[in-house]
Design a protein that fits this description.
By secondary structure, this protein is of the alpha/beta class. The chain is built from six helices and 14 strands. Strand 9 and strand 10 form a beta hairpin. Helix 3 packs across helix 5. The N and C termini lie far apart (42 Å).
Length: 233
């Protein structure tokens, strides 16, 4: 049986947060929580009788502040972050290929998927993959700041994410079109930015996007490198 994650949404930044829990056990993991929703997220855990063990970040976000530090303080969970994102206070600095364990036999595989940022990670669990901003539904994350690279993102998606089984469910870090979940097979065939495109074509496309600078980047990135906690806190 493939267990679906609990998918929560922040309308201001269009960010998805995910809670993972295995059937018949109380251990839980949360991915990419948002600061303004820490109470909401704790209520979800409480209602379901879950104990938070790990707080995962896919990267140091530029468009919202994380509640990772707050949730860890409140629950005793450990923060697990990409080792290349400069999030120094986190207990677990993850590297490509590591396996995180929670509950009785649950495993999350760590996949280094740089390109949106240099350190970005995706997380694979039970035929689900949580792709952060590397792979979005019918799109992908931008590549023009925080050590981003269109060539690296193309390699991450085609060389790592698209090698997962076609029926793997894709749970993105954001959505701006009212979509919530896709599959690897669908994205390989239909993704508007990636399907049927060469590495050079993709790089040209990304270089021409000319996107506005994220409004919160100067606040969010430093805050997120401290797990969303006040410096010195």
């Amino acid at each position: 049986m493939t267990t679906n994650p609990i998918q929560l949404f922040d309308t201001e930044s269009s960010t998805f947060t995910y809670i993972l829990a295995a059937p018949g056990d109380t251990d839980a993991v949360i991915i990419d929580p948002v600061a303004r929703h820490w109470e909401r997220d704790l209520r979800h855990l409480e209602r379901l009788g879950l104990k938070l063990r790990l707080v995962l970040e896919t990267h140091a976000h530029a468009d919202h502040v994380t509640s990772a530090g707050k949730l860890c303080e409140m629950t005793g969970a450990l923060a697990a972050v990409p080792g290349g994102c400069g999030i120094a206070p986190a207990e677990l600095q993850l590297q490509d290929g590591e396996v995180l364990r929670f509950g009785p036999g649950e495993e999350i595989r760590v996949l280094h998927t740089p390109g949106h940022t240099a350190g970005s990670m995706s997380y694979a669990w039970r035929r689900n993959v949580f792709t952060g901003d590397a792979l979005l539904i019918d799109g992908c994350g931008r590549t023009d700041f925080q050590g981003g690279s269109a060539q690296a993102l193309y390699d991450s998606v085609t060389g790592k994410l698209f090698t997962l089984p076609d029926d793997t469910r894709v749970w993105p870090g954001h959505d701006y079109q009212g979509q919530s979940v896709s599959t690897i097979g669908w994205e390989k065939r239909h993704n508007a930015r990636l399907a049927g495109r060469s590495r050079a074509d993709f790089a040209r496309l990304m270089d021409q996007l000319d996107l506005p600078r994220p409004k919160l980047i100067d606040v969010a990135v430093p805050a997120n490198r401290n797990l969303g906690l006040p410096h010195g806190g």
